[in-house]
Amino acid sequence: MTKLPLTKSLPLLFVAGALVAAEPSGISGKYQESAQKLITAALADDEGLQRLQYLCDRLGNRISGSESLERAIQWAAGEMKKAGLENVRTPPVKVPKWVRGKESAVMLAPVQKPLTMLGLGMSVGTPADGITAEVVAVNSFEQLTALGRAKVEGKIVLFNPAWQGYGPTVIYRSSGALRAAELGAVAVLVRSMTDHSLSTPHTGALNYTDGIAKIPAAAVTVEDAAMLERLVRSGVPVRVKLAMEAHQEQDADSHNVMGEIRGTEKPNEVVVLGGHIDSWDIGQGANDDGSGIMATFQAVALMKKLGLKPRRTIRVVFWVNEENGGEGGKAYRAMVGEAVKDHVAAIEMDGGAEKPLGFGFGGGGEFGGRGGAAVATSPAAFQRAVEIGKLLAGIQGGEMTPGGGGSDISPLLAAGVPGFGVRTVGTHYFDWHHTNSDTFDKIVPLEFRQNVAALAVLSYVLADMPERLSELK
Ligand SMILES: [Zn+2]
Q1: From first to last of its 473 residues, what are the pLDDT tens digits of the chain?
Q2: Most exposed of 86, 192, 236, 389 (fewest Cβ within 10 Å)?
Q3: Domain 6-98+251-471: assigned CATH number
């Protein structure tokens, strides 16, 4: 990315400010004062960061079915009450309980070397004495198919795909085990889903399919994946022993968390915003997605503090079980039932708290299949979103782009609710994603506060403006 020299970027900022000031009409004029109040409050706010720090350091990571998740849920509901939100509730959600247990991988030949690994979420374990087998290496499913059953059966398949961004590459994590099992492989190792690595393994969920053998799968570091592939391609037999205690326990009782500012004129119409409270069982789930739940919460808490009373209800929801099932998002959709038609917009933050650029609007988009069905948005609705975004020109955080959404709100988008997903610069998100290094120290306070500001302005205007987005044709 090229950076503008300071002497050039400063006049640009002034010009942008002057344009907004010169046209105090329409939405961006009408809401300029309340938007400025929210932005000023967000940029000075410490409370959101303090809550995020408490979540990370005192409550810890939050995998579905864990005691730490349930403690975080009860604490979060208490914090929403303390912030003065109304109708604070923790509706029940059944969630899968996957337990990692002890795990290890060791290369036994051509030299002995421990491999830095993390079992993939939802993976089955190995027998107690592990699985020891020769490794075959591929960069793609095409290469796997070309090897065929004769060369794959009884082997451990290493998937070492080139990084092409999360969406196109994650299929090797989610589907590698079942594709390899179809050809008789006994286990899978997959290169961690990242472009930058300091020997950090990245976990994440895999999917099995009924009727195809469930074989254990683990992420290895980019460095170890490259070494294993080099050795295999050099023609020397490579043997690895994989041992994993991973297993499923009975589904657990868990909860979504929700609180509101009730609308003054149309309380039944709802703008919902949030992220997911669960995380993986490693690190602190700071960026994924502690930052998303605490930034959306703080956006609403600041409205309450400032005495801003939107016409429609603004509801913050912490969805549970995004990482390995999506049961929280599905349960919320089921809970609202017919009232989904009165959801005027859904906003999700689940991409870390780096410097925000704006919002994806519409559905689908960068989250690929996880973003849910694309919602057709009219040009007028998109134009309105662009106008609201202009209120964020001062923090350069209001650019609207087509596509967006998020996995927790995808059931709402599938029912026709207009969806927004926070977009950030994303410089480091996938360095930390699903690793032990997703910790509070990675949160840059100014950038977190800018996210709070952007969420507060967008959700407030959507909840207060005269028309719903869906009425703009
Ligand atoms: Zn997430």
Answers
A1: 333 333 333 333 344 444 444 343 489 899 999 999 999 999 999 999 999 999 999 999 999 999 999 999 999 999 999 999 999 999 999 999 999 999 999 999 999 999 999 999 999 999 999 999 999 999 999 999 999 999 999 999 999 999 999 999 999 999 999 999 999 999 999 999 999 999 999 999 999 999 999 999 999 999 999 999 999 999 999 999 999 999 999 999 999 999 999 999 999 999 999 999 999 999 999 999 999 999 999 999 999 999 999 999 999 999 999 999 999 999 999 999 999 999 999 999 999 999 999 999 985 333 333 344 445 578 899 999 999 999 999 999 999 998 878 999 999 999 999 999 999 999 999 999 999 999 999 999 999 999 999 999 999 999 999 999 989 88
A2: 236
A3: 3.40.630.10
Distance of CA 5 to the CA centre of its chain: 33
Q: Please state, in angstroms and rounded to a whole number, the distance separating the CA atoms of residues 123 and 103.
A: 12
- Cα–Cα distances (Å) from 341 to 89, 257, 331, 417, 464, in that order, read 21, 21, 16, 7, 17
Centre of ligand 1 to C-alpha 443, Å, is 15
| Cα(165) to centroid(ligand 1), Å | 16
Q: What is the domain class of 104-245 according to CATH?
A: alpha beta
- CA 24 to centroid of ligand 1, rounded, Å: 38
Give 347 Cα–ligand 1 centroid separation in angstroms.
14
Cα dihedral across residues 451, 457, 458, 459: positive or negative:
positive
Show which residues are catalytic: 322
Question: Omega into 110 within 30° of 0, i.e. cis?
Answer: yes
pTM of the prediction?
0.92
* Ranges of each domain in the chain: 6-98+251-471, 104-245
